[in-house]
Design goal:
The chain has five helices and 17 strands. It is an alpha+beta fold. The chain has two domains: 160 residues, FAD/NAD(P)-binding domain, CATH 3.50.50; 45 residues, no CATH class. Strands 8-2-1-11-10-9 form a six-stranded mixed sheet. Strands 12-17-14-13 form a four-stranded antiparallel sheet, with no helix packed on it. A three-stranded antiparallel sheet has the order 3-7-4. The chain is globular, with a radius of gyration of 20 Å. The termini are far apart. It binds flavin-adenine dinucleotide. The site of flavin-adenine dinucleotide (FAD) has 24 residues, from α1 and β2.
Amino acid sequence: MNEHAVVIAGGGPTGLMLAGELALAGVDVAIVERRPTQDLPGSRAGGLHSRTIEVLDQRGIAERFLAEGQVAQVAGFAFNRLDLSDFPTRHPYGLGLWQKHIERILAGWVDELPVTVYRGREVTGFAHDDTGVDLALSDGESLRAGYLVGCDGGRSVIRKAAGIDFPGWDPTTSALLAEVEVTEEPELGIRQDDLGTHSFGRVEYEIRDGEVVYADEGPVGSW
Ligand SMILES: Cc1cc2nc3c(=O)[nH]c(=O)nc-3n(C[C@H](O)[C@H](O)[C@H](O)COP(=O)(O)OP(=O)(O)OC[C@H]3O[C@@H](n4cnc5c(N)ncnc54)[C@H](O)[C@@H]3O)c2cc1C
């Protein structure tokens, strides 16, 4: 049975970042990720805020993201854009970059570090004792860890199995997110009507003079 000081269940952005941090601190860390590759079926989150870019800069990897994304003033509150350009930071802006690219770049960084990645298998259960945790994997193998960290998403199996509650309030707003091919172009941009708020845009876009200019063709997303 393989043994690690820390095993992280889930190799999404949280798991990748934690694995990188622990590896840099000299900790023997492994990720168990059920996806066979880092690919995501959709674009997901649209980019990074200033503070996140600062943290990536502290690790010396901000340039990798900046090179692939588009810098813009993205912070906002209640449909009002907040301009950070005179804030005392090396990165007084956000970055437009889809999560599928953010994860690919983060995974590339983790690949350069001493992190073991068990791909294409899930953590299906665990039992802990005084000195650590035994993990059961979906391929029938097991792992031993000093610590197990649940970075396995909002419906975390690890959290539920550990009996950790997910306190909060019932939602007051619901949202539909989709990326689709359409035969007719919908009205792009953000608008409100009796049904709610609609935000349509093409997945491919450019930021010109601080404004989003959508591509003429390609999938349309509703975020
Ligand atoms: C359609 C969509 C649009 C979004 N848009 C935005 C946005 O605009 N802005 C924003 O900030 N956020 C957005 N999000 C949310 C954002 O994607 C998440 O907050 C982020 O991915 C959370 O990262 P994470 O690593 O904690 O979890 P996840 O990304 O959920 O990663 C969890 C990982 O754990 C793996 N896993 C799960 N269970 C197991 C298991 N038992 N064993 C092993 N591996 C397991 C999964 O395969 C996955 O790779 C969006 C999400 C979706 C789905």
